[in-house]
Design goal:
mainly alpha
């Protein structure tokens, strides 16, 4: 619960900083602060002398690591809004695999002597190193602009800016055709091109309008 509250707060701070620093720098800053701050908290775990101290240190680890979510979790929407669910799925899968390893490896190391502080120190140092490495990698390679753009054939033409511009151009062309169509009708004797008593006349005027438009282009 504490981690969730901190993550929501860090996401708000990330958006607030993004309006001033830019999305890319804001995401990097929030993620780096959280992951770098979690490293020293992890190093405190082997020195806990009571269960209350262990719970307190664990809460600090969750708070600091949860703060980083305001940088990397929302970044899926930044780099690929049309594929944010897929990207989140990949990230969640990698996180679950890491979670499986994070329980198996300590269990194997502590199977002989669970009270061995040297083993606990080794595990805490390894986790702290991973936290710092993750922060460095995110700062080095994270982006704030769209990388994965939506595919019109997969998501339809309505969500594409190019398709919207194409539809707008088609509307302009149809309006020009309508104007030429009306002009052709008046020039032919003032007869309405939509008159029901002369369908052949209407077809001829339409063809002439399109040909005139093509000649102008």
């Amino acid at each position: 619960m504490l981690m969730y509250v901190v993550a929501v707060a860090s996401g708000t701070m990330s958006d607030f900083a993004g309006a001033r620093l830019g999305i890319r720098q804001a995401r990097k800053l929030v993620c780096a602060v959280g992951l770098f701050a979690a490293a020293p908290m992890l190093l405190l775990l082997p020195g806990a002398r009571s269960s209350s101290e262990l719970y307190a240190i664990n809460a600090l680890v969750l708070m600091t690591s949860g703060f980083s979510r305001g940088g990397f979790s929302i970044n899926h929407l930044d780099i690929g809004p049309a594929y944010a669910g897929v990207l989140q799925g990949y990230a969640g899968t990698m996180g679950n695999l890491a979670g499986i390893a994070a329980t198996r490896v300590p269990g194997a190391l502590l199977s002989l002597d669970p009270s061995d502080r040297a083993v606990w120190s080794t595990m805490a140092s390894g986790l702290a190193l991973l936290s710092v490495a993750a922060g460095v990698l995110f700062v080095a390679f994270a982006e704030g602009e769209v990388i994965f753009r939506e595919h019109p054939k997969l998501y339809g033409s309505e969500g594409s800016d190019d398709a919207a511009a194409e539809r707008e151009m088609e509307g302009v062309e149809m309006a020009e055709i309508g104007g030429l169509y009306g002009a052709a009708g008046k020039g032919a004797g003032g007869r309405s091109p939509g008159a029901a008593d002369d369908e052949s006349y209407s077809d001829t005027a339409s063809v002439e309008s399109v040909n005139l438009l093509r000649g102008r282009n």
